[in-house]
Amino acid sequence: MLVDLLVRRFVPDHQRTQDPRVRARYGALSGGVGIALNLLLFALKLLAGAVTASIAVVADAFNNLSDAGSSIVTLVGFRMAERPADDEHPFGHGRIEYLSGLFVSAAILVVGVELLKSSFDKVLHPAPTELDLPSLCILVCAVGVKLWMSRFNRALSARIGSTAMAATAKDSLTDAVATSAVVLGVGLGSAFHLYVDGWIGLAVAGFILYTGYTTARDSLSPLLGQSPDPEFVQEITQTVLAHPEVVGIHDLIVHDYGPGQRMISLHAEVRADEDILVIHDVIDRIEMELRGRFRCETTIHMDPIAVDDEATASMRARVEQAVHGVDPALSIHDFRMVVSPTHTNLIFDVCVPHRFHLTDAQVSRAVHDAVRGLDGPYFAVIRVEHGYL
After folding, report:
1. Distance from first CA to last CA of the chain, Å, rounded?
2. What's the CATH architecture for 234-305?
């Protein structure tokens, strides 16, 4: 496979995909191939546009020129993301890779807007087009090249998990669709004297604008702080719970500062009657294990729970049932009891899903009422929080 051959030739240590230096080489490969092929396509399509007198072909040619600029951005972005941490950026520069994907998305949107304007003008002022055999061959070859470039960048994106390369792959796919539509429009105009060049350009512009929007959304999501991959969360959970000293975890947060620059924080529930020095050593070992396995810094907060206290366990089960009566989507953790001669305080956190149909204040009131409905002088002391997963 050509992709494998290029990767082995130009990306030393290509299997170490979380290493910023290796990712920079992947970016250089993607950018270099994109610059060379897009400049070639620009020259050939510009020639074909002059011969056919098609505004769509000329616009498509300049689309390839902008793609060459986007490839330069990809190359430079990966190179800048490789830079190590410094005093101003203690978590490195990995998010620059996300920004390069956002720039490619912006370039797609600009091309879509320009094609929309030129196509609308062509609808208002139609003109005949001619398609000769050499121009047809150029455009058909351009479609094939762009489809290969889309597959090439999609393969690189899958190898290293890059949103920037995924954006470049989508950009190449839109170019292939745009050029195919251009061939159709010019062919119909040449063969049947139908002035559909502008109308097809409008349809292609709409497709490009939609692709630009979805690509920008996908590139912006990690910058805003998206939910982590469920498989990654499952792997972390299994790694932590593999230690018998940990009986449960919650409040797991994954902070993403760019590929290979993640931080994990979580709460680990441990037995309250264990030696704190022994448990602390276990937690330290878990942190080192996560750091070595997933290449991410980890901070674990210990939550002591009364595992063998039957009264606490029984009361927790009753409270969980009462909270689920408010809504099954609610959950509790950090449960403990403080007993006094006149009443018992039940202290716990209530985890509420995002976009829940009740406000935090309404959840708090409902849970307080549910606890007061239990048989006994029980009062809830709760903190409402939202899950990060």
Report:
1. 38
2. 2-Layer Sandwich (3.30)
Would the CA dihedral through 127, 133, 134, 140 be positive or negative?
positive
Measured CA to CA, the distance from residue 134 to residue 345 in angstroms comes to: 84
The pTM score is 0.66
**Strand ranges (DSSP E) for the chain?**
246-256, 262-271, 296-305, 331-339, 344-352, 378-386
DSSP at 225 = -
Q: What is the pLDDT of residues 160-207, one digit of tens each?
A: 888 778 888 888 888 888 778 777 777 776 667 767 777 877 887 887
Nearest to 10 by CA among 167, 19, 22, 48: 22
Angstrom distance (rounded) from CA 167 to CA 170: 5
Q: Which amino acid is at 48?
A: A
**What's the pLDDT score for residue 320?**
92
Q: Look at the domain 310-386 and name its fold.
A: Alpha-Beta Plaits (3.30.70)
Candidate CATH numbers 1.20.1730.10, 1.20.1510.10, 1.10.3210.10, 3.40.430.10; the one for domain 2-224? 1.20.1510.10
367 touches 358 (CB < 8 A): no
Token pair recorded at residue 307: 């595992």
234-305 shares the fold of 2-224: no
Cβ distance 108 to 174 under 8 Å? yes
User: How many Å separate Cα 369 from the centre of its chain?
Assistant: 41
